[in-house]
Amino acid sequence: MPRMLKVGDRFTSFADAKKAIAELGDNTYTTFWKRDARTIASSKIARQIKSSLIYYQLVYACNHGGRKFKSSGKKIRQSWTFKEDCPVHVRFKASLDGNALEVTSIQSQHNHDTSKVLYAHTPSQRRLSSNMKESVKDYLNMKANRKMIQQKLQESTGKIITLQDLTNITKNDQSKTENLDNCLKILKTKYGAHAAVLRDVDNNFRGLFIQTPAMKSTMNAFPEFLAVDATYKLLKIGLPVFLIIVEDGNCQTEIVGVCILASEGRQSFTWFLETFKSENPAWINVKCIMTDKDLHEREVIKNCFPNVNLIICVFHTLKIFYREISCQKMGITPSQRTLSLELIQKLVYAKTDDDYEKYMQGLKDSVPRTVYEYFMKNWHNTKDEWNLGKNYFKNSFLNNTNNRLESINAKLKSVINKNSPLEHFINSLFTIISSLETERDHKAVYGILKKPVDMFPEDSDERKYFKLLTREASKHVLREIRISEQIRSITVSADGYYIITDSRGSTKTTVSSCNCVMYDAMILPCKHIFALRRHLHVELFDRMLVNHRQAANIITSLLEDNESTGYHLPCTSNDSTISVSLTTQGHQPIYSYAQRRKKCLLLCTELADLAAQRTGMLFEQRLNLLKNLKTLWANDTAVLLTPIDVRDENDRQFIVESNDEVVFENENFSEFCNEVVIQDLNILGDVNLSSLGHTEVIEEVNMEESNKENEVPVTADINVRDCNNQSQQTVQVNDINLSTIKMPVAIKKRGRPKGQDLTVIGLPKRRKRKPLSFSKKSYQEKQDLILNFFVQNGDIVKDIKNGKILEDLDLKSFPEEISDAVLDNSVDVHLMKTFCTDEAFNKIFNLVEQKRLKQHWSCSVCGAGNQNDQTAVCCSGCLLWKHIRCLGLSRRPKSKQWFCRNCY
């Protein structure tokens, strides 16, 4: 029989008393908690008390008893508590001789139910040991199935484990604030990476650049082509992550730079690129950079890389045209918009200057003036950046989209959870990088080790190229050699060049160079060179025709260098550095109204995001604050906002019903309310700063270990430059505490739950907006509906929107296959004419006439019926008839317009 406590029981130490309470709780299915306690040190008792007792007085109470819970909230949401005023308790007190803890009072009658099942579900019984928690963290970090982990834990521990318990294990491991100091230590000690930090004069975090020695080696070996883009929603502080990638000699994608920026403005992006340049001397060999059409980014790239071929991703180009050329923005009709987009798409894909000029003339003659002026102002002067002509592909290795970066972004998001802490993001980032490097290196090694079964003869030119080049590069060269055998037209021009003509036009060629797109893009010998060398009886193989980046030995040496640095293993090198850049702004330039408005607009957009991230009363308070600010500024009143930080006992911020503005009617006070603009600009190296105002730069220094806990000290020189008088002075600064840099506030997760568009049974919810009848639908919506009546599958509709012309084979063959909706008088099949060939449109017209001659309709639910049936109703949206009985209705709807469930 289990031992029960009683008054007078003595325990020679607190550990024994605690053990007895635990046994009592297990025997009576009660969770005890320390309700009240007074230590020996705080009791100030004169007599001697044994130190192992720790407490002079001690009270354990049932978790349903003790102090009564009183909510300090506004009771907007329902709250729950374990407290039920249960009287069960056990009171201990030091004995008179001071040698034991004695039970002086005990109450064992609960005012609530107790059982083994209820007891097993309490938090204290579900708690896991520290070792078990670490094992669970490892499983969760590997994204193991939570239900499988739950089952495994319950079998091994015999405890009740909920899915929320598993979530809490990872949540408790995440600090509420980002610790930049710890992140920098991880980058240095674990990954041997160089890190550059950007902060402003208020010590706010503005940027973090990361690059490993392996990334530097890759950049040094393959600097010709770069792609730059950002990915979002990876960090809980809501900052974008920029990636720089290159294409190696085996046509594989490699990351050579990572940067987190607090702002995507011109100054921060300049610091990012200048830091990248300072760490990679091979930047002078960059020939081509691909980005999207962001004006700030492109201006900065042109300034930092003045002689590169700057191109825009074709996907982003077409997406911008689709967004900007709209009926609302341009004031045009749907048919005019369609025609404009068709012609502009032809301009994008025009391969020659003659084609471009032909389509350009068509654009001028056919589209509305607003569209033509928009195109001429924003796109025509930069056509080499987006038109897929000859100039576009120079040194691009035939890349015309950012799919390489998008693929890496998808891999990042497959491992890195959304809204991750910075430290978790860094570890997951290098997990992805290590995996990509392993797969890429394995593919490169197998390209060297494994040979094709049907190999070329040993002394053949093809065999020599195969041995010299990487597998992917050799595929390209061998294909060009094979195609070159079909070229027959070779003539000599007056200037001594050979003119080679094929299906794609004429090119100027010599035995070692060519002006065709393939040669300019790949930096490898093309079919024209091989055809000319064969025509002149010159050996096809020439080592000088191949750029060194595609040579197999370059890949091998790079693999050996990376293996020696041990990038797959924890770093033991002390060569990594951390640099901190500090920027301020001196004399402010005089801005025009448009410039002032643009600067304010960027800030207002951020304010709108911050306000929208909150809900309920807090959102209303922030909205009212903005309204009040607008009213006060409209009256030309100076305003100072005073932050009020009020928190409840659970450390949760709640709303204060008070006015957050302090208004000063005196206009002289405005000098204290001036906005301080902090520039992010930090240009490293010998760069002209004459137009940037007063700038302070902390040069890069080697990071030294600190004896202080959680601090990474940096010793640096601050170069203070006054660009107005070109003077410079140096000030020594010691022990910059990186842990004091203020990180951005984490953004709480907000979003719509899954299935929010469905009812509990899984049917679509009724839309809040009123459905439109077919006659009131837009021109585009009518076209889409009528297209689906006739095409064989829905994918053809998407192809038609992308420029495909509807042909006879794409259409249904029999009248019975066409929707009965075409019998309605409001359906005009002539809307299809712009998408069809003449034969296809004639077929559509004949099918409709045949169907109308039969004058037969069928219920779209059961398939039976005739046109004179008065027990049916027609949907005003999709124009399909349905039996009233099939809809579950008892009578015909009385409303003039009725919509089925699919339309409503």
From TrEMBL:
<dbReference type="InterPro" id="IPR048324">
    <property type="entry name" value="ZSWIM1-3_RNaseH-like"/>
</dbReference>
<dbReference type="InterPro" id="IPR019787">
    <property type="entry name" value="Znf_PHD-finger"/>
</dbReference>
<dbReference type="InterPro" id="IPR001965">
    <property type="entry name" value="Znf_PHD"/>
</dbReference>
<protein>
    <recommendedName>
        <fullName>SWIM-type domain-containing protein</fullName>
    </recommendedName>
</protein>
<dbReference type="InterPro" id="IPR052579">
    <property type="entry name" value="Zinc_finger_SWIM"/>
</dbReference>
<dbReference type="Pfam" id="PF21056">
    <property type="entry name" value="ZSWIM1-3_RNaseH-like"/>
</dbReference>
<dbReference type="InterPro" id="IPR048325">
    <property type="entry name" value="ZSWIM3_N"/>
</dbReference>
<feature type="domain" description="PHD-type">
    <location>
        <begin position="856"/>
        <end position="904"/>
    </location>
</feature>
<keyword id="KW-0479">Metal-binding</keyword>
<keyword id="KW-0863">Zinc-finger</keyword>
<dbReference type="InterPro" id="IPR011011">
    <property type="entry name" value="Znf_FYVE_PHD"/>
</dbReference>
<feature type="domain" description="SWIM-type">
    <location>
        <begin position="497"/>
        <end position="537"/>
    </location>
</feature>
<dbReference type="Pfam" id="PF00628">
    <property type="entry name" value="PHD"/>
</dbReference>
<dbReference type="InterPro" id="IPR013083">
    <property type="entry name" value="Znf_RING/FYVE/PHD"/>
</dbReference>
<keyword id="KW-0862">Zinc</keyword>
<dbReference type="GO" id="GO:0008270">
    <property type="term" value="F:zinc ion binding"/>
</dbReference>
<dbReference type="InterPro" id="IPR007527">
    <property type="entry name" value="Znf_SWIM"/>
</dbReference>
<dbReference type="Pfam" id="PF21599">
    <property type="entry name" value="ZSWIM3_N"/>
</dbReference>
